[in-house]
Amino acid sequence: MKKDTSNKPFQVIMDEQVHQNLKERAKQLNMSKGDFVQNLYASIEYRLARYRDKIGFTASARSDELDVKLIKFILYKDKIGLTAEEIETKLEKIKGDFEYLKNRPDITFENNEF
Question: What is the pTM of this model?
């Protein structure tokens, strides 16, 4: 049987107590640390897409800069805790900062053609 090479070991530098907490949570969920981290990442990506949709940005309006801003917003919101009004205000500011992206043409490449 062929060995699965899609999963490889990686080292991540982090605070020792955070690593211990991560291991404990993964154990509580009966998951490996890798599976737990992958699920956390998937959760961030899901929330990112949800906020992108909420402020009205389609796939053609995607930008790394917008994604970074929204991920920082998600992490800030989780750490600080914001009211619904504060969330809306911050999302409106982000939307305004990236309004220019909505004017990008929606061009799809398929088989190296438009």
Answer: 0.74
